[in-house]
């Protein structure tokens, strides 16, 4: 399996196929697919990301197969994007984020890896993309982008980026900087009815999110010899995600309707830095030793203040002060030794260690019964339980990974990971717990032909807990509840995950078709649990409920219309149908699912490249299955509705050799509407108290970009 530079003979063979990708026929030994730089030349790409946009089936790889997965746990052994056959030692600063920064003229070829091997720098959980850069004693490239975001309400936000990449002797480098401003204005309305369906109130409100971001990246690699490699990855970012909310209420509970207003200011700051590195040495016998490390920190500070007027235009009075602070840190190191047991077997043995720390603090104040504090906007501080907390996890994971090329067509990758961890909490609550797990995995692949591959995998997964759930935090899902209690007794979810699928690469670069079935069996699944102090004061928090299941089928297609005489037209489609359910949830009256497993969705896309005019355009539509699925809490339930989305773009290489691109988002101006049912007492009692219907739209958004490589 090739994951490094091609030999001169193979490289010459590839170039003889200039303008075409190819996969070996069914009698060959390699099911990988190679796209040379010449294949993309007629499209005038600026970045590696532009090149990947022309590869059939690439979105399937980027999305990890479109199956919802839990968040990253440590460094792990998986990654979807490789650069020169290597993963980047980063989490926020990972390979996927580098694709817009790598200049297209620095790319030698792109390889889609469909198999498993000890030669790979990672475990292949589906398919991998390997971006192989040119080898040269000296090369450099400067890529730039200027953009302007225009919103339907007239707001304009400029931004831009610059990336400098190249090679000098044994050094490879990629240095980039970007600045931008993301903006969203949501127009909302909410109608509220009493339990007997009489009018309660109407709310007309808007929410403006204005986020200014600055980011610096550096990726440096040093190859002192053919058997050694050192790499360093650096990231620093700063953001100011400020939010403003204005509400106009009409209250129908008085003899005459009464109008009053409410506004919120939510200034925030966010700072994030990360340092990652890796070291590799290859011995003369082909065995390797490698080590990776990551150190990072992210600090978020948000202040939420609410002001109320009794009548429109009247004097304001402050009704809420809520300040949240979070500092998240990781220190991770992973080291392993890779043995070549034989010509068709490899073994990797190693260990990963990690320290993760979350510091959280929440300050809460309400209108005073006595004179308040000026430090809290004149309000009176309220002492909330578990509002000041530090959670720390120390984790060790020894692992062994075995790769076996059973035959030319059949491969088996098996692994066993042990986990020993301790989670401790200090501050308002003191607690400490230990966890031990064994996590096996099997991945079997059979190349029916070099174009058609079948795969089955079985894996035991232990989820990464959100440390924010251990202490009290703000509630972003229900405006009637400002904070949510934490749970220091949370335990990780454990699941067995079975996946079975087929991947078919159509001959002659005709496209790709992929179908995957998945079935997950959970234990200790996290949902809402009852922590109510009394029947008159109902409260919940995130906690372990018990067993649950999720299963579904996903079909992806990416077809070139060459059979219709349109070889540069690419049509994509995706259909996902899935289901999830708890075995038993004591807070709810009926079976229900859990995020992120909604009922499913579809995707239809169209892209047309016209090289003779240096022009490309396309559209993408993502509709959702709507079936009244609801999320339950102890005293309310809410319909989960995710809006459809219609996007389009047009791109042309024009004046000055620059690339001009116009993108449109939410072009159909879809409205996201949901209904919340509130109950008197428990949901299970069935005494309806209030019905709220809320709808919002963020309007249409257009982005104009000018890009160039020098």
Question: What is the gist of this entry?
Answer:
4% of the residues lie in helices and 61% in strands.
Task: Note down, in words, how this protein is organized.
With 710 residues, the chain is mainly beta. The protein has a domain at 1-135: Ferric Hydroxamate Uptake Protein, Chain A, domain 1, CATH 2.170.130. It is 4% helix and 61% strand. The protein has helices at residues 8-16, 37-40, 48-52, 58-62, 95-98, and strands spanning 22-23, 33-36, 81-83, 107-113, 128-133, 138-151, 156-168, 171-194, 199-225, 228-251, 258-266, 268-282, 288-309, 317-342, 345-366, 380-382, 388-405, 410-427, 431-447, 452-462, 473-474, 483-484, 494-506, 511-530, 540-561, 566-582, 600-610, 615-622, 630-632, 636-639, 645-653, 659-665, 672-679, 688-697, 701-709. The protein has a 28-stranded antiparallel beta sheet that branches. A five-stranded mixed beta sheet has the order 1-2-4-5-3. The longest helix is centred in the N-terminal third of the chain and has 9 residues, at 8-16.
Topology of this protein?
Blueprint: H1 8-16, E1 22-23, E2 33-36, H2 37-40, H3 48-52, H4 58-62, E3 81-83, H5 95-98, E4 107-113, E5 128-133, E6 138-151, E7 156-168, E8 171-194, E9 199-225, E10 228-251, E11 258-266, E12 268-282, E13 288-309, E14 317-342, E15 345-366, E16 380-382, E17 388-405, E18 410-427, E19 431-447, E20 452-462, E21 473-474, E22 483-484, E23 494-506, E24 511-530, E25 540-561, E26 566-582, E27 600-610, E28 615-622, E29 630-632, E30 636-639, E31 645-653, E32 659-665, E33 672-679, E34 688-697, E35 701-709
Parallel strand pairs: 3-5
Antiparallel strand pairs: 1-2, 2-4, 4-5, 6-7, 6-35, 7-8, 8-9, 8-34, 9-10, 10-11, 10-12, 11-13, 12-13, 13-14, 14-15, 15-16, 15-17, 17-18, 18-19, 19-20, 20-23, 21-22, 23-24, 24-25, 25-26, 26-27, 27-28, 28-31, 29-30, 30-33, 31-32, 32-35, 33-34
